[in-house]
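Replying to the earlier thread about multi-chain prediction with a worked example.

Input:
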Amino acid sequence: MLEKINLDKSMTKQEYKEFIDGITPRLALLQRQCKEERIPIMVIFEGWSASGKGTLINKLILPLDPRGFKVLAISEETEADSFYPYLRKYWIETPAKGRIHIFDQSYYRGVTAKAINGTISQEELCNDYDDITEFERQLVDAGTVVIKFFLHISKKEQKKRFQRLEEKKATAWRVKKRDWKYNDQYDEIVPFFDEMIAQTDTDYAPWTIVEATDRRYATAKMLNTIVMRLQEQVEEVREKKRHKPVSEAHIGKESSRFMPGILNNVDLTKDYTKKEYQEKIKELQRKLAILHSELLRRRIPVILAFEGWDAAGKGGAIKRLTQPLDPRGYEVIPISAPNDEERSHHYLWRFYKAIPKAGHIAIFDRTWYGRVLVERVEGFCEKQEYKRAYNEINRMEELLTKEGCVLLKFWLHIDKAEQEKRFVARQEDPDKQWKITDEDWRNRSKWDQYEKAVDEMILRTSTGNAPWIIVEANSKYYARIKVLESVVKAIEEAIKRKK
Amino acid sequence: MLEKINLDKSMTKQEYKEFIDGITPRLALLQRQCKEERIPIMVIFEGWSASGKGTLINKLILPLDPRGFKVLAISEETEADSFYPYLRKYWIETPAKGRIHIFDQSYYRGVTAKAINGTISQEELCNDYDDITEFERQLVDAGTVVIKFFLHISKKEQKKRFQRLEEKKATAWRVKKRDWKYNDQYDEIVPFFDEMIAQTDTDYAPWTIVEATDRRYATAKMLNTIVMRLQEQVEEVREKKRHKPVSEAHIGKESSRFMPGILNNVDLTKDYTKKEYQEKIKELQRKLAILHSELLRRRIPVILAFEGWDAAGKGGAIKRLTQPLDPRGYEVIPISAPNDEERSHHYLWRFYKAIPKAGHIAIFDRTWYGRVLVERVEGFCEKQEYKRAYNEINRMEELLTKEGCVLLKFWLHIDKAEQEKRFVARQEDPDKQWKITDEDWRNRSKWDQYEKAVDEMILRTSTGNAPWIIVEANSKYYARIKVLESVVKAIEEAIKRKK
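Result:
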């Protein structure tokens, strides 16, 4: 998922100054309130080397009362550490009620390093991450706030920072040989961080990815996240005392500025000419027909999940996909609002029912992601429910894919202007008028809320086994080709694996 | 833990009739209330072959409105099943809101059978159980009640039942060759069921072990468990609507009759003569002195945890244990009420701090089990907190033992009469008066509540890695020898493993 992050975000000096002036007194107040309410707080900084963890921690503690926090720099394991179970050190360093412990790297460091260096098996890694989530769960269950930051910079940016450090005598010692080695291997390391985040991103202790190219932006996002989270917790503790449900109104709106902005980063100018399109589609469909019979023979199940803006072209893409398929071997499953029977079950129930059997293809036109999209935005489920859903969905997809199923998830992306153009065109075409309803216009008016929900969805559910594929769909030609290409490639790889 | 269950429990016909007359209308009413409150209910029956699952299910459905439940008999995996991920079948069969699904065996069957037959690795087994607890967690999070029974009979009883079935032509077919094989291997199978229960016994979906020798007793315990659990859930749902915390008062008292009764089953007449004692203790202490230096050399950490009734002789046993030890290599850690600093942390924090380093022995005089004993009985923690604690403690002990630590837990058991004798003796002896306080007498007055808490503790936290050892302590001689013998044996085995 890290590759999907837009790392160009920044903030001007002026913006930053205003932001800091506004947030500093709020943070100081929250520290006092958390002390009063006896809330323990753990803030964890992980991320690339030279991503600015130290700088951010300095910015964080500036407004804090020094009697109430402690910074813990976690370096490599010492020999003394090796006499004890791994997590003991961190258990001991958990904050007392009302105190803030800030970790400059943490228990994540050691585990992930072992994974990167290949000194740990996949099973052991899963077990270690499981121990960590259990540790965090126990703390949160007992009232601790756990805030986790991953500071993200690009390979190029990291290299630049190393060079700058080496230029000065005073800082040259900070760049180790190993740092350069890791910079060389940046692209191979990304999947390890991806896995760390995916396996330990829970509703009770979620990760926040901080785009750390621009220090002002990174500082602002970090402070904003902490303030939002502490405010929420203080409210919750206070409301609980009064035995009232928590209303979100008190907590304040999250600034869209600090959202991941994955969609904003998509290049919607990509296109093909009609001729290119026709040639490519013919070849891809030919391949797909052959692959389909191979799937059946090797009993590989395939799930293709389509989400996207209204009028983004899901129907057209699905049509091009199914044309070459043997109708006995696939099914298109359109998902709309749940019926009475479905509503009376767990929201994932109807999807478990629709899992394709080995060798078959199931194409979902809208999916289980409705929970974190429409149900979230329209308030059809509670906040706790959609927050829990990211992990529930990841677990479901893990169950599917670990037994060999190919699972691809497409987000068909168009911009707001393109959507309007298509809506209007539909209204003017008597054959297509049925395709456009008042609800479409209503949804459109909530574009920003949906965009925020999509961003978070892609971030929290792009896993190694079941990645999101963002399809640039302002051009229908381009979108259809990209979908077919992705499907062909994934099936080819799965067949190779099963040989 | 199964070996600790007293399987001789029974009920007279008269008692049973009265019980059934009382509970039947309550169960019928609860079914209606659960329908009204739209609560989905899953009841799972697992257990030994011929333990009476079918009979119990028949007894359960008798008072129920047949329109509201469904019985699902789960047999071996079919070829059709193998086309899908394992848990899909069970996801599909989850009950709709307000309905009861009764499983005659369930997803546990297939996984545990693979473990018993050795067709699955330890890692895969852990992962499968993890998938199961996650499945149950998702259901419970969405409001489902999950009730799990394990029907337990002895090897002898199972054999008797097989023979009786074979005697009659009408039932002979029900006993398969494989059943006899499993009866032969009964003792080897016990640890697999123990592990299944330990790994999937959670606060949100706990197991109830049903002593199934006597069908009347088994039926009564099963019905009682279901009625208690449903009543609790209905109350919770209703109170939540009114935004009030749940009071336990509404739910009614659990009958001690259906508690595991592990302590009742302990033979307290065991004893040694003074001569036997002196010979044995000398020999054991000699061995222990040698083993202690071996521990240090091989860097094996040891934790010895002592719990027991007041005046059961913990101090005396610990003294005999430490006499031969090198004082630089062990520590006795007396645990009393937490101080201010400890109270301001997670309740396990002070124990993580006290973990011995590799090669050392930590002897705890009272332990982390205070959470589920004194804190539970005296109301120092909330119900949810002590219920969660069983799993939290199991996880902590797993963290310790998986890295090679020897962990033994002793419950020193005396009966109520013996305790009184010792209390009185202490009061009359000027040298020992300090040992007895008003608090001891107060605790004694809550003997029954403590007994219930101890029973549940032993049942829920006796794991393969960290078993409870019940020490028959009416005879101090016997108790001290048993403690030393257990320690010597465990250390010898650990050294053998580390060779």
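Chain B touches chain A through 52 residues (CB under 8 Å).

Feel free to reuse this layout for your own posts.
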